[in-house]
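Dear support,

I submitted the protein below through the web form. The confirmation email said the job was done, but the results page showed an empty box. After a refresh the structure appeared. I'm attaching both so you can tell me whether what I see now is the final result or a partial one.
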Amino acid sequence: MPPHLSADEKHTRYRGEKAYLAVTAAKGCIFGSELCKSAGHEALKAGYGVFQAEVAHHLPDYRPQTVTLDGWDATRSAWQSLFPGIVWILCFLHEVIKVRDLCRSQAALWQSLREKLWHVYHGANKGKFAQRLRRLLEWAKKQPLRDSIHQRLKRLKDKSALFQRAYDFPGASRTSNAVDRPMNYLDRCLFSMQYFHGTWPAAVQTGRAIALLWNFHPFCRKTQQQTGCLCPFEQLNGFRYHDDWLRNFLIAASLNGRRSLPQSLHTK
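What the results page shows now:
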């Protein structure tokens, strides 16, 4: 298990009502995908709690060091409740996207802001990051920007310490790409099946099944040649059980005879 994780909620629908998949990912794999009926603290704590219970069952000594989040308070509080002492890192990409959304009718302005924002992001250390952010805000003061854009850029200064936490943990994710990219796959699958229409337990198991298929889906031939890996599972663990992806999946999913968790641990 990697020490640095990313987590986010995939918005979906269950019988026409809003629902959320609490997704935990890292290193190209999905480690948790649990369906929740709301995005509040208690629901997300129960959703991410399934991941916490399963990893504790198999690796009792595992303690993740960091988790990268988009800043949603309920997600943050859920992770801090489940893993006391974990350091949460604010995703820089989400802040860039929020600025982009405010500049949709101003292509030239967005081009300038995008370059400057990512210049800040690529600061080699905390000092460089803070210095580049100050220069960005000084530049912004001299520009005829709308108040909404000014306010959004000022908020970067207030959140600066949350971005800089990643510098204390080499290998930690500074954006939520590690979870966003697998969630794109979940999104396509859910859209294709027109979301969830059966029973709640069936929907929960479907969400988990889609995540498992992602972990064992075969890479394209070019990626296999470049990496020497068959699938995300092998890329993470450094080995595969079988050259056939389905047999590899079935052997790995057998848990080598280990007992599975009681069904009561899953959200209802």
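Response: this is the final, complete result; the empty box was a page-load delay. The first strand starts at residue 4 and ends at 14.
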